[in-house]
UniProtKB/TrEMBL annotation, chains A, B:
<keyword id="KW-1133">Transmembrane helix</keyword>
<dbReference type="InterPro" id="IPR036739">
    <property type="entry name" value="SLC41_membr_dom_sf"/>
</dbReference>
<dbReference type="Pfam" id="PF00571">
    <property type="entry name" value="CBS"/>
</dbReference>
<keyword id="KW-0129">CBS domain</keyword>
<feature type="transmembrane region" description="Helical">
    <location>
        <begin position="279"/>
        <end position="299"/>
    </location>
</feature>
<keyword id="KW-0812">Transmembrane</keyword>
<keyword id="KW-0479">Metal-binding</keyword>
<dbReference type="InterPro" id="IPR038076">
    <property type="entry name" value="MgtE_N_sf"/>
</dbReference>
<feature type="transmembrane region" description="Helical">
    <location>
        <begin position="380"/>
        <end position="406"/>
    </location>
</feature>
<dbReference type="InterPro" id="IPR006669">
    <property type="entry name" value="MgtE_transporter"/>
</dbReference>
<feature type="transmembrane region" description="Helical">
    <location>
        <begin position="353"/>
        <end position="374"/>
    </location>
</feature>
<dbReference type="GO" id="GO:0046872">
    <property type="term" value="F:metal ion binding"/>
</dbReference>
<keyword id="KW-0472">Membrane</keyword>
<dbReference type="GO" id="GO:0005886">
    <property type="term" value="C:plasma membrane"/>
</dbReference>
<feature type="domain" description="CBS">
    <location>
        <begin position="197"/>
        <end position="253"/>
    </location>
</feature>
<keyword id="KW-0460">Magnesium</keyword>
<feature type="transmembrane region" description="Helical">
    <location>
        <begin position="311"/>
        <end position="332"/>
    </location>
</feature>
Amino acid sequence: MKTKEQILLETIENATLEEIIELSEELHPVDLLEALQDYEGNSKDLLDKFPDEYIAMVIDEAELDEKYEILSLFPQKQKQEIISEMSSDELADMLGTIDEESQRNLLDGMEEDYREEMEELLSYSPETAGGLMATEYIAVKESMSIDETLKFLRDISPNAETPYYIYVTDDHKVLKGIVPIRSILISEPKALVKDVMVQNVTTIPIDMDQEEVSNLFQKYGYMAMPVVDSDQILMGVITLDDIIEVMSDEHTEDLYRLAGLDEEEEVDGTILDSIKSRLPWLIVNLGTAMLASTVVRLFDDTIGKVVALAVFMPIVAGMGGNAGTQTLTLIVRGIALGEIDFENKKEILKKESLVGLIHGVILGLIVALIAGLWEQNLVFGFVIGAAMLLNMVIAALAGFFIPLLLKKLNIDPALASSVFVTTMTDVLGFSIFLGLATVLIRYLI
Amino acid sequence: MKTKEQILLETIENATLEEIIELSEELHPVDLLEALQDYEGNSKDLLDKFPDEYIAMVIDEAELDEKYEILSLFPQKQKQEIISEMSSDELADMLGTIDEESQRNLLDGMEEDYREEMEELLSYSPETAGGLMATEYIAVKESMSIDETLKFLRDISPNAETPYYIYVTDDHKVLKGIVPIRSILISEPKALVKDVMVQNVTTIPIDMDQEEVSNLFQKYGYMAMPVVDSDQILMGVITLDDIIEVMSDEHTEDLYRLAGLDEEEEVDGTILDSIKSRLPWLIVNLGTAMLASTVVRLFDDTIGKVVALAVFMPIVAGMGGNAGTQTLTLIVRGIALGEIDFENKKEILKKESLVGLIHGVILGLIVALIAGLWEQNLVFGFVIGAAMLLNMVIAALAGFFIPLLLKKLNIDPALASSVFVTTMTDVLGFSIFLGLATVLIRYLI
């Protein structure tokens, strides 16, 4: 049986020009991209059946590392046609990933105005508002009427970045207000833009970090927000669908960093990329594990006398690591969501310490009981129980303070936090457990 | 100095009715909500200065557990006025969280049509398309002209859920197509809806899980998508800002489940909630740690003879757990993003195994060297090196297979994966390390 994708590809292969035009109005470029992935014919010939405007949309939708791959299929002149139809934000992202010569070639082929715009977009860091924004927006003057605005819209026939808001600027491009699309639709034709516009606009500074931009969008729920420079001059627009990508990327980054993976690693990447991503962390971990080993080594005499200590070492380390990771994850997520501030920090610390203490008492008692019965030695039960109790509190404190300290040092709290936390619980947990055993050794043999 | 919030609150306290009307057009309800959090006066009196429509917007924006808290401030009659202005999806969410009697009271006070609609919304599971959608949408007929559509829009003056698309339905409410708002703005007034509408609409089945809905939005980048039943009857609309919340919740769930936290736990929650969320996982972990201990116990004779084995145990366990978590996290995220399918599964397994093997060789050699020198015993170096090598491969296999197995059993792959993975690496790692040492014991003493 043929798949949906195969049917689509065959339809395209056999389509007349007219049918293609019709198809390109109905077919989402993402679906064509997906079908192309398994296409065994010549992708260029297939894409070439579509108008350049549609090819531009396909490239707009492609993953960052595929964009230029698709564009390269076409001759230089057609390349220029295609990129002139691309969204400015996607084009800037693509230009940012290619070698300098290809970039220069494409820029040189652009019309001067657009080239200058693109060079400006390229100058912003990709992870800031400037790197996210598109420069396609619709601006009108305060003195225009709704009817004039509608005529103006029909004339310029906006595409690509759908206009959810119309921006109102003065002669110096300073943002004066915005008109939501619904106001245009429902206002009387004779009303003036200045009467229907919203003046108190939440704007995004051009150098704001993308995570903060994303938080603003999540807070207010707007479909698009204007980006301004320090003089309130309108520079571009960020739309909610860009934020969806930012959120997904930031999520991946959080998860990966907590696990000791480079955020660039891909699940279907190469072996070399995986090793580059993970080996450094494993080596850091080897270093911290050695630290724990060194602690154990300090007490090898004691272990030689009471081998049961070695038997219970995995419990001390494992439980401490897990409890620490719980608190750590909660704090890292709370920081990312902006839920931890100066005021509730103390409350959270108090809560986490108490939770650690209560867990320590409960788990300490259970472990003490099991170990005491197993080894037929009450003091042994006391030693492991006390170590468990203290290690649970240490886990809570480490899980709380380490990410907040990293945040204070302007390091991503997710980065390497878990390595530090488990090092703390391992080193201190073993020290307490084996130290206590050494002090009480005469009751253990 | 006064904060922004204090200034806002004072402005409201002293505002005339006229000033309030003006303010409510410019002030985002989220900003009022934020200011209210630290308000020392009477919230009800302050909110009561605003029209009911604005109070409804404030409740729409409030967190789920705060919505009814705010609504309860008002007398029954005003409650009904306020909820009649709320978004249908937010109202249904709120009704779903309150006790049966209060719910019944509010439902009974509604107009019949809306009550039936609300009862239907309440019947859908909150984590499906039906639970996410709102029922406010604008539907027109194919035969209408653009000019008629514009007049119609002016008449009904849509609010709340901004219309990004107009839906085209037949007499039986079957979805025939959609008209993007930009088509309305730029089409000739005389054009007919059926000429400008898009027919090939991607629809969402009403029982689709929210994670899949979120993936569809991320794939296509639409601002809103229609929800239909099995007869293609238009039931409601989901907008991208709802998806933002879903994404954030799903991400918290992933992170929390990987760390052994209940997804309902909040960073500023109570001690009791934290213990309920975490203690069960810690006890599961205690069980699996006991398993590892039992393995160690099997070899206590060997450890008694070669205490250095206990010194290197933390390295075997720690490295295995970390490498396993790396693979696990990559696979869990890949599953969530839909990046792992039947075809590339084998490729990924091959890659992960090879990465594990290469890491094993590199780290095995390093550890063998260090341990061999430290203990002045080549065989000891060989034992720990070989255990490290094999444990890295085990970590890769466990990190790969466990989440995929859970997925196959329809269990969230993030749930408990890390417990299983570290149990595997601990139990098998210790078995290999201590087992090998037992076999080669005469070269170690």
